[in-house]
Specification:
Number of strands: 3
Strand content: under 5%
Largest sheet: 3 strands, mixed
Structural class: mainly alpha
Strand order of the largest sheet: 1-3-2
Order of helices and strands: HHHHHHHHHHEEEHHHHHHHHHHH
Distance between the termini: 58 Å
Helix content: 55-70%
Radius of gyration: 22 Å
Length: 490
């Protein structure tokens, strides 16, 4: 049964990829119904009476202790999902899947036309459905805990709030000091970079980072994502803008980090529920690690800057390697989350986290989101979006009902910094390897210590196994302090 559900998951992943990369617009509403039917079939299997009986038998202590590690982990993950979802009627699940698909299409149109009112009716329905789901799931203390658990099992608002408060306090202090220092050049990226050439550079770049192009592909989409159809088919997407070459480069590196994780899972897990990352936070740790701690490092561009100049000789003429490195690490409050610098990025996440909690608790109404969003942007970053397209409509997540996902990005940053601390201890020449273009040594370390395990361990078990301790915000704070002190001469 587990393998059958896995096959359904693979097919749905392929359908979702197609819907977001090239499916004709006029066929999408019909397509949404087809996805709803298939998803409901899979859902009914996962919460069936037969599934419940199997899980009850396998969970019996005497039986459980005789199981191999893969089966134990599969029972743990499958039982957690079963207990959460068993009370959801199939009809409601189907309605939700179709709604989310149509909502995504409405969001794309609203974002393109800067028309929040077009998206609002869909968003209101999605929010109401997610509220209903929290009741089906059951929760303690805050209803948002039920949704947060979908992405980071076991984590609660009571744990996230202090983590984010501490990170915000330290980040704002560092930001104020940075703003008083000598700033990097901005003019480097205030010019056009041919999109076809950007595509060629990205296709040159990702295989060198360890991404197997024979087990994946790189495409375009409105909002970049990675999807693992199976261990031999892990696809990534990116977005191009003639006036923003950084977006495509670092967005592609980010998605490559996700893809390396999926390509690195033990192939013995294929067909099981544990053939995925330990959690969304752990998954984001791998994308953020590769994008920022590797991709924005000085060593990375000592190796790749000459290649980039070959692709863009006119734009980078007279720009030194050091000037380029400082420019890609410019710290400056900005409108778009996926284009934000490392330091202020977490502020974008906190804004979304607070809004999500308010929407699910009923303290914020969907119709008020543009105003609420703009006020929080002003409060956290000191800027106000001029349009909803670069404001409340910029992210795809809410259109798909992914409430509880956003905290994973900042959790990923926290995990990544803690993992980096361990990597540098075990691999003293970490940055030397990057400077020499030896990305396979790093990729193999990540595969051996993180990727291969999939969901074999819980997020907390895995981070303790890798680093020797539970999640600790200290490492990200220290990483920021060290990095930006050097760049800005603090």
């Amino acid at each position: 049964m587990d393998e059958k559900i896995s096959h359904y998951t693979n097919i749905l992943g392929l359908l979702n990829w197609d819907a977001r990369t090239g499916a004709p617009k006029k066929g999408r509403p019909i397509f949404a119904k087809a996805k709803g039917t298939l998803s409901t079939e899979m859902f009914e299997l996962s919460v069936s009476k037969k599934m419940g009986e199997h899980l009850e038998t396998l969970s019996d202590p005497e039986v459980y202790e005789q199981l191999d590690d893969i089966t134990k982990a599969s029972v743990r993950v499958r039982k957690h999902a079963y207990e959460k979802s068993k009370n959801i009627p199939s009809k409601v699940h189907n309605e939700y899947v179709v709604l989310a698909s149509n909502s995504n299409d409405a969001w794309e149109e609203a974002r393109t036309n800067n028309d929040f009112s077009h998206f609002l009716p869909f968003l209101e329905k999605v929010v109401e459905m997610k509220k209903k789901f929290t009741e089906y799931y059951g929760y303690e203390d805050h209803p948002y805990n039920a949704l947060l658990d979908d992405f980071e099992p076991g984590l609660t608002v009571d744990e996230v709030d202090p983590l984010f408060a501490d990170l915000r306090r330290n980040s704002l202090d560092l930001l104020q000091r940075i703003q008083k220092a000598e700033q990097p050049r901005k003019d480097i990226f205030e010019q056009e970079f041919d999109i076809e050439t950007q595509k060629k550079f990205n296709r040159f770049l990702v295989p060198k980072l360890g991404y197997d192009m024979e087990a994946g592909r790189l495409d375009e989409t409105t909002h970049p994502f990675a999807t693992g159809i199976n261990t031999g088919d892990v696809r990534i997407t990116t977005r191009y803008d003639r006036n923003n070459v950084r977006m495509a480069i670092f967005g592609t590196i980010h998605e490559t980090g996700h893809a390396l994780y999926e390509q690195g899972v033990n192939s013995d897990y294929e067909g099981t529920v544990i053939r995925r990352g330990a959690s969304y936070g752990i998954h984001e740790s791998q994308s953020r690690f590769l994008e920022n701690m590797v991709g924005r490092s000085e060593s990375f561009w000592k190796f790749f800057y000459g290649d980039l100049k070959t692709f863009f000789p006119k734009q980078l003429n007279g720009v030194s390697e050091k000037e380029f490195y400082r420019a890609i690490n410019l710290v400056e409050p900005s409108m778009i989350r996926v284009e934000a610098d490392e330091l202020t990025y977490n502020m974008h996440i906190m804004i979304r986290y607070e809004i999500e909690k308010g929407l699910i608790s009923g303290e914020i109404a969907a119709k008020d989101l543009p105003d609420v969003w703009n006020k929080k942007m002003q409060e956290y970053l000191g800027i106000t979006p001029p349009t909803d397209t670069v404001g409340v409509l910029q992210d795809v997540h809410w259109s798909q009902g992914s409430f509880g996902y956003f905290p994973s990005y900042s959790l990923g940053n926290l995990y990544a910094a803690q993992i980096l601390n361990t990597v540098k201890k075990e691999m003293p020449d970490f940055y030397g390897n990057i400077e020499n273009g030896d990305f396979m040594t790093i990729r193999n370390w990540l595969k051996e210590n993180i990727h291969q395990y999939g969901k074999l361990y819980t997020p907390n078990q895995l981070i303790k196994k890798v680093t020797g301790e539970e999640l600790n915000a200290k490492y990200l704070v220290d990483y920021f302090e060290e990095k930006y002190s050097k760049i800005y001469g603090l």
